[in-house]
Amino acid sequence: MRVAKEDKDRIRIWSDSPADTEELGVILGGILQPRDLFFLSGELGSGKTLLVRGITAGLYSEELAISPTFALVHRYAGELPLYHLDLYRLSSPEEIEPLALEELLEEEAAMVIEWGEPAKEALPASYMQVEFFRGEDENQRVISFLPYGERYRMINHLLLIKLITLLP
Amino acid sequence: MLTLGVETSCDETAVAIVEDGEKIRSNIILSQIEKHSKFGGVVPELAARCHLEAIVQITEKAFKEAGVGHHEVNLVAATYGPGLIGGLLVGLSMAKALSLAWKIPFIGVNHIEGHIYANFLVHQGLTPPLVCLTVSGGHTELIFMPEHGRYELLGRTRDDAAGEAFDKVARVLGLGYPGGPLIDQMAHKGKARIVLVQHDALAGAYDFSFSGLKTAVVNLVHRLKQKEEEIPVADLAASFQGQVVSTLLDRAFRAVEEKKVKKLVLSGGVAANSELRERFSREAAKRGVELFYPPLSLCTDNAAMIAACGHFRFQRQGPSPLELAVAPRLKLSCD
Fold first, then answer.
1. At what angle do helices B44-66 and B85-102 cross, to 10 degrees?
2. Fold of the domain spanning B2-116+298-317
3. Model pLDDT for residues B2-48, shown as the tens digit of each residue
4. CATH of the domain spanning B128-294
5. Measured between CB atoms, does B215 come within 8 Å of chain A?
6. Angle at the Cα of B4 (from B1 to B10), degrees rounded to 5?
7. So what's the ipTM on this one?
8. Range(s) within chain B of domains with CATH label 3.30.420.40
9. Which of A10, A27, B3, B212 could form a disulfide with A6 if both were Cys (CB 3.0 to 4.6 A apart)?
């Protein structure tokens, strides 16, 4: 795993394996606070759910994050509860409305949304956009953290420091 | 004793009438698959609306086909989880309303337990102890059932459900939805010659993982596209399916051996897969294990299995309270 700071407070992480992606999630889990909101985007098999599995481990949750494609919303208990959503099967804001996402966010919990584009209208304008790209190697993923808002610039700052200290 | 069963947890609106938990008097299923196929999967709000529009009509049809009147039913059973919240609410609310109106007891049924009971409908005389493998779009569970109503969860998926992996791989291969039958058909035309995953990372455990296999297909398709080479869709379908079945086979038969039982039961939509049936049958014959699986019509979601399960639960523990709430993430209680 390797990390670099880019322009506009964006950071970019090179994950060399699924284990790296999960480890990144564990580190991120240790930084999260109530009402933090993350959108994850990237093609099937790029590691989104794996990152969330790491996050729950980082929150000392005893539950194992699994794909919420079928159930849409999972809630994991832990030091900080985590909502894990997957809107892969939804397409319009009208289909999102009944999920009452704003209400979930009022709770003392963090939220991670996969395939969340149609939900953005209904949610706060400040969030972290995490994008997963293919790297050069078949198992490599380039994961980009783009912050919208002060809190998320702070998360990137903390994440950068943690990664630099932890990485060999 | 007649039980009315109601199932609305995903994309089938289903109502059935079952006698004594074993004899199907009627089993009506309205599938919404066509309505959802253009979206590449079930759309929950659309599903809830369709359930609401169809349920009364389907219920009337179930009575008509069974040739019984409303007053003849003794128990009403409905799925209360796991599943999609909107759909569950429609079925559960109707079941409670009927219970009140007709003054008959109501019981909530766990959908996963229902799938296990699909087998008791067709295999008269089937009794626990047994090992059950439930594989569908939302579930992948390996369960030990020492006696009626008691379960030990041995293994489950750590990422994607088996059926979900079929759906997603079908999409990547451009086959469409639902992925299970489409990959099954395509696999017949291909050879399982491509090694997608070298090692079973969970070898020796009972848990499953299908996400790595899915990613391997995605990676390979991506690489071939970049090189502008042809994608061997049929061979990939056969290889993917073969590896899913190998994983399921390994876990299921190890459980049978460890739990020292002689009966293995399959349930859920993926149990309809032809390669799975063929290889499980062969392995069972080799090991002297009795293999049970429901007919195709009872593998996928249906209400007869809910009625059967409700009947047996009611015999043991009586009715559920009318306050019983829907539980979208309900687990099989392993008491």
1. 30
2. Nucleotidyltransferase; domain 5 (3.30.420)
3. 999 999 998 789 999 999 998 999 999 987 666 666 555 566 666 77
4. 3.30.420.40
5. yes
6. 145
7. 0.76
8. 2-116+298-317, 128-294
9. A10
